[in-house]
UniProtKB/TrEMBL annotation:
Record-linked CDD domains: MtCorA-like (cd12830)
Name assigned to this protein: Magnesium transport protein CorA
Record lineage: Bacteria, Pseudomonadati, Pseudomonadota, Betaproteobacteria, Burkholderiales
Transmembrane segments: 266-285, 297-317
Record's keyword annotation contains Membrane: yes
Species of origin: Pelomonas aquatica
Entry-linked InterPro entries: CorA_cytoplasmic_dom, CorA_TM1_TM2, Mg/Co-transport_prot_CorA, MgTranspt_CorA/ZnTranspt_ZntB
Length: 323
C-alpha cells in the first residue's frame, strides 16, 4: 500500500505523483522522489521497479521479506534491509522489516509486518530543508537513524527488568522457577535485539570512512553518529547478556542452597525422632530384668529422658542453623 509519495526540489515538496507517474515527474523536476510503502502488493513493486529501474534481485528481496540486516550495492543504487522491533502482547519482541532503495534521484522505503511508520521522519526532514537539500543520502540517514533510535527504549526496558529481578532475587520465599523463566525471556529478547543490531553495525561502517557510496558521501558524519549509537547499544546488549548469565548462575546456586537447607532440616528432625524412637524401643522390649518396669516413676522418667534428649538435640541443631 502506498503511504506517501513526494518529489522534493531545493528541500521543498513540489509534486506528489502516483506510482505510474514517477518517471514523468522526475523528468519534469530537478529534485528527487521519496516514496513510502507498507506491505506492498506484487503489482505495486513491479510498477515501482519499472518506473525507477530498480535491481530485480533487490526487488525480489523486498517482495519476499525476512531478510537479514544488510547493505548491497547495485551500481549506483543501494539496497538496505533493517529490522523494526516492537514489544509484543506476550512480552516478547515482534520483528518487522524496512527495505530502502537509494538512488541518485529517489528513495523508496518498503515496510513489512510492522505498525511503526516513518511519518515523523518525513515531517522532521521537511522541517529541515537545508538538510533535505542534501538529497536521498540524507533521507537514507534519517530512516536509519529512526530505526536505531527505536532500539534504545527496548534495551532500556530489558535493563530495567533485569535490575528489578536482581533486587528481588535474594528475597526469601522467592519463586526460583519464575525467576529463571523471566531471565530466559530476557535472554530471548536480547538475542532478537542482537540479531538486528550486530549486522547493522557492518552496514553503518560501510557508510563512513573509506570507500563510501557516492549517494552517501556528503552524509558520512551523520552515518558515523548512527554507528556510534549502534556501538552503544551493542555494548549494552553484551553487558546485559553477561548479567543474565551471572544472575541465572546465582539463582541456580540459591536453588541448591535452598535444597541443602531443606535437607538439613529434614536430617535434624529425623535425628530428633530417631533418638526418641530408640529410647522408646529400648523401654518397649519388656524384658523381665528391666527395673523400670516395676518402678512407679518409670514411665514419667522415660518420658522425661525422651523429652530432655529431644530438647537437647533441638537446641543443638538450632544453634547450628539447621532449624
Amino acid at each position: 500500500m502506498l503511504i506517501n509519495s513526494a518529489v522534493y526540489d531545493d528541500g521543498r515538496v513540489v509534486a506528489e505523483p502516483d506510482l505510474d507517474d514517477l518517471s514523468e515527474a522526475l523528468q519534469a523536476q530537478s529534485g528527487f522522489v521519496w516514496i513510502a510503502l507498507r506491505d506492498p502488493t506484487d503489482d505495486e513493486l513491479t510498477r515501482l521497479q519499472h518506473e525507477l529501474d530498480l535491481p530485480p534481485l533487490a526487488v525480489e528481496d523486498a517482495r519476499k521479506g525476512h531478510q537479514r540486516p544488510k547493505l548491497e550495492e547495485y551500481g549506483e543504487i543501494l539496497f538496505a534491509a533493517m529490522h523494526l522491533l516492537e514489544a509484543g502482547p506476550d512480552g516478547g519482541l515482534e520483528v518487522g522489516e524496512v527495505h530502502v532503495f537509494v538512488g541518485a534521484r529517489f528513495v523508496v522505503s518498503v515496510r513489512h509486518r510492522s505498525t511503526q511508520g516513518f511519518l515523523g521522519v518525513r515531517g522532521r526532514s521537511e522541517r529541515e530543508p537545508e538538510l533535505l537539500r542534501q538529497g536521498p543520502g540524507f533521507v537514507f540517514y534519517a530512516l536509519m537513524d529512526a530505526v536505531v533510535d527505536r532500539y534504545f527504549p527496548l534495551i532500556d526496558a530489558i535493563e530495567a527488568e533485569l535490575e528489578q529481578l536482581e533486587a528481588t532475587m535474594f528475597q526469601p520465599r522467592q519463586d526460583r522457577q519464575a525467576v529463571v523463566q523471566r531471565l530466559f525471556g530476557l535472554k530471548q529478547r536480547l538475542a532478537t535485539l542482537r540479531h538486528a543490531v550486530t549486522p547493522l553495525l557492518d552496514v553503518a561502517a560501510k557508510l563512513h570512512g573509506g570507500r563510501v557510496p557516492v549517494v552517501c558521501k556528503a552524509m558520512q558524519d551523520y552515518f558515523r553518529d548512527v554507528y556510534d549509537h549502534l556501538v552503544r547499544i551493542q555494548a549494552s546488549i553484551d553487558a546485559a547478556r553477561e548479567t543474565i548469565i551471572a544472575a541465572t548462575q546465582v539463582n541456580l546456586t540459591l536453588v541448591t542452597l535452598d535444597e541443602s537447607l531443606v535437607t538439613k532440616r529434614l536430617a535434624a528432625w529425623a535425628a530428633i525422632f530417631a533418638a526418641s524412637t530408640a529410647l522408646a524401643g529400648i523401654w518397649g522390649m519388656n524384658f523381665e530384668k528391666m527395673p523400670e518396669l516395676k518402678w512407679a516413676f518409670g514411665y514419667p522418667m522415660a518420658l522425661g529422658v525422651i523429652a530432655v534428649v529431644s530438647g537437647a538435640l533441638y537446641w543443638r541443631f538450632k544453634r547450628l542453623g539447621w532449624l
